[in-house]
Amino acid sequence: MPNLTINGVLLEFQKGQSILEVAIDNAIEIPHYCYHPGLSVPANCRICLAEISQPNHKTGQLELIPKLMPTCHTVAAEGMVVSTLTPKAEANQKAVMEYLLINHPVDCAVCDQAGECGLQDYSYEYGRSHSRFEEDKIKNPKKDVGPHVLLYSDRCIMCTRCVRFTKEVTKTSELMVEGRGGTEMIDVFPGIALDNELSGNVVDLCPVGALLDKDFLFQQRVWFLKKTPSIDGITASGDNISIEHNEGVVYRIKPRTNLEVNQWWITDEVRYGWKFVHSENRLTLPALRGAVSFDRADPAAAWDATMSRAVDVLQAGSRNGRIAFLASPMLSCEDAFLLGRAILSIDPSAVLGVGPVPKSGEDRTLDGGFTISCEKAPNARGVRRVLEALAGTAPARRPTGAPSVCDANEFLAALTSAGSSVALVTGNYPSEWVDEPLARALAVRRFVLLDTLPNRLTSLAETFLPVATWVEKSGTFENAKNRLQSFERAISPVDFVKCEGQIALDLATRLTGSPAAIYDAARTRLEMSAVRGLEIFADQVRHPPLAHARASDMVTVEI
């Protein structure tokens, strides 16, 4: 492979890479604002300029290019020597920072971007220690540019990432550059709001505090937030995300870069679809039909009573016919496995089904390869994979011609044909999911319901058990492209809820008298891999990369 030298380090590169790309790949910092790997390269911020020497094609001797060159736009070449540490390059960095800060307001104390601001970081690393500007700063208004985004024009450094995103990725072109020189600013076209399906990504792209998320505005200082790697729990896309939270409260969701899945982006649906986690309507205490509500001061008694009733209901169903189990596509693979195993231990011929899979429109793939999924459930394929494997290893086979695992419509027919008088039903959808046929079918049966929000089944269930959302547990989802990805628990389950996997283990303890167990996703995947048909859970689940602590370069002294 060809080689070049950046700041004294000899590096290999692939043909066609820019100098900046080579530096980024090798963790060598070259300051930059306008460059982003998912967008075109305008080379307009000028802070990445470097002194470059390259071999003369005739003599082979190094010759210095007489002017500074933009590393984001200059293609790496064999034998090239690049330096951003020379006096000339450092003078340019200081000059660029000085120009950017001339009209920038000194409002870091009230800016949401403080703590993760590229302007703050580079001002410290590459800027001057004081300002020489003594004139009045140009003032620009704050603008409401769309349903989710505010524009603080005073803070904008005109990197144009946001403009290029709406032009090149979403192809909606709502944002533009207006004016010239010191009056140049980002704006929307008259009468056109920034309202596309990926609009929130411009906030992530903005390296300063110019574009801010209305939903997160003044909610939390970023240095208080903890980041937990997770997977989209709203759609079948499998987008890699970070859940940012503090003291048990989720404040925002941001994309995690994964070039094989969601690249650098997520949809607004995923970004803002988590609000049901902290909904005022969230059900957090078990309930029994016809009984007085349990005392919140004694949740252990409530769980004990409802679990005892649930076991009685399921065992009665196995004596009088076949049990039916409807597994929601919102469950993790581990949840479905543990619940399915518990049900089959009671009734090996149980009717197994996957709950309704909501859809809206058709899948849409953008030019860059990012796909907006029409399927609004994260794990329909994973739940089916698990249940089919369990059904295939159950001692009793299905009746001739009957599917091993039903879809939502087949499940309703199977309830009648199998003579099932008892069911275990799981929900965990972010919105209303029960249709009239399902409600009618279950109204004449005894059933145990595991769910998060009130719906038409909660008052009909013999036993109701509140369950955790995906941000409150760990597990694995299989996306629309059959990619298995694990996710971590971000926050503890609210109030008195439990994850479905833990409820399944508690059921197994009561049914078999086995020792009590604590749900652990990794251990469950190991158990799953021993089941025929689920071997892929041993080594084909993609896990989030390990986080590496970043050492501060701030010098501290004891006082």
- Envelope shape: elongated
* Tally of DSSP helical segments: 13
- What is the class of the domain at 287-469 and 499-531 in the CATH system? Alpha Beta
Please tally the β strands and state the result: 24
Task: Round the mean pLDDT to the nearest integer and report it.
Answer: 91
Radius of gyration: 28 Å
Provide a descriptive summary of the structure in words.
- 25% of the residues lie in helices and 18% in strands.
- It is α+β, with helices and mostly antiparallel strands.
- Among the domains are: 3-94, Ubiquitin-like (UB roll), CATH 3.10.20.740; 287-469 and 499-531, 3-Layer(aba) Sandwich (Rossmann fold), CATH 3.40.50.
- The strands form seven sheets. Strands 1, 2, 3, 4, 5 and 6 form a six-stranded mixed beta sheet that branches. The protein has a six-stranded mixed beta sheet with strand order 15-22-21-20-16-17, with helices on both faces. It has a three-stranded antiparallel beta sheet with strand order 7-8-11, with no helix packed on it.
- β13 (240-246) and β14 (249-255) form a beta hairpin.
- α7 crosses α12 and α8 (333-346) runs parallel beside α12.
- The mean pLDDT is 91.
